[in-house]
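Can anyone check this?
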Amino acid sequence: MTVPVGLPPASPVSSASPVSPVSAPVGLRACEVSAPVARCSTGRTADGSDHGSGRARTTPAGTVVGVFAHSVSIRCQDPHGVPLIVSLSDVPVDSVAQARIPADRLADLRLEGIGTPVALETAGAAVVASRITAHGTPAVFSPPASWFDTADGRRFGVPRLERAAEAIWGDQDAEALEALCGLGIGLTPSGDDALIGLIATARTAGLGTRVIGRFTEILTSPRAAGLTTETSLCHLRLAVGGDFSATVLDLLDALIADHDSPTTGQPRIATAVARLAHTGHSSGADLMAGVAALTRRLAHQQRSSEPSESGRDQQ
């Protein structure tokens, strides 16, 4: 049987035909942006220093690459010239690469065709933090059903997911992470979403530095373009750099609170899980499958390292 892979949608929601770029781009002003979009628009690196010529850019140029029911995707570039797919919507920012724009401007933009040039003005927009640093060990939790719970997921996905979790724990075998790329369903395939969950958990717990570094090299190599969809590749590159959506940060913070104090953490976990589960068709659930795989591995290791009752009696 052929292993299912994620493919981009056959056609955008919009029926507008592709258009040729024109000299005057559609001008938009963002009300709120995620941190990666803010860095892209200002031309500054993560530490705040000027990049390249040092000239700050407040209006990044982009091109429409997808028109959907509630959002429009544009392709622009980060300060290093790497493609970044940004979702424009009229809802508060909770995605890793998103900008909130007024509803009337979004409606106008959705009438434009693929290939329309866009100038996104972000000066003065609120910036939503996205960076994860090591700050604790997440507790084990029960994620909602995902692609990994389907027949294909159990057969093709679970063994690779478990191997990738083991690779992060052992801090070696970057090919185990690569093996998840492009696997499953969706514009961001299930395997990629699970990888983001694994990497987010690893960064939170301070694990897998070397293997994630090696995986970063794979994602920036010439063969990266053939691993998965362009949108998913952008999200994976942001993940290895430490950037995640607000919904992912909320879940991991709740899991850490539960690990430290189970009586207070459970309500936060339930809220965070419900919020993340509504991300995409299955993306949120698939991502949580990755988080759960590594938290189970951490819990197993913790139990294995504890002395047995007989061992304590002999001490």
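Reply from J.R.: I decoded it. The longest strand covers residues 61-67.
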